[in-house]
Design a protein that fits this description.
single chain, 133 residues, alpha+beta, 2,3-Dihydroxybiphenyl 1,2-Dioxygenase, domain 1, eight-stranded mixed sheet, binds zinc ion
Length: 133
């Protein structure tokens, strides 16, 4: 069902500064930035091999990213697995008794269809399923 780690989401205070870190220190390339209003985040993508680093900065104080940083500080926030069919994947999760944050897929950055599983069901890891065309 899951065929690769699509990206790793990292919560940061300042997108510009964090981009610099990954570009200057690790030599990654910035692939673009985007604001996702629905999720109250500004996102930067930095591909690395077959996967991507996704840096996330809150755009409002009530953004999930702002809340995450308030509770835990900056750092890895979620891991996203790529699936071919997100409806089927969610159905399978439901059948396996996994608690879902998103009962239905919603749109994430880059037009991907995404859904989060509840960390209480996944030993504390926020898992995103994502379907990209
Ligand atoms: Zn993500």
């Amino acid at each position: 069902m899951v065929n690769k780690v699509d990206h790793i989401g990292i919560a940061v205070n300042n997108l510009e500064e964090s981009i610099k870190l990954y570009v200057d220190i690790l030599g990654l390339e910035l692939h673009g930035t985007e604001t996702v209003e629905e999720q109250k985040v500004k996102v930067a993508f930095l591909p690395v091999g077959d996967t991507e680093i996704e840096l996330l900065e809150a755009t409002t104080p009530d953004s999930p990213i702002a809340k995450f940083i308030e509770a835990k500080g900056q750092g890895v926030q979620h891991i996203a697995f790529k699936v071919d069919n997100i409806e089927e994947a969610l159905e399978e999760m439901r059948a396996k008794g996994v608690r879902l944050i998103d009962e239905k897929p919603r749109y994430g950055a880059g037009g991907a269809r995404i859904a989060f599983l509840h960390p209480k069901s996944t030993n504390g890891v926020l898992i995103e399923l994502c379907e990209k065309k």
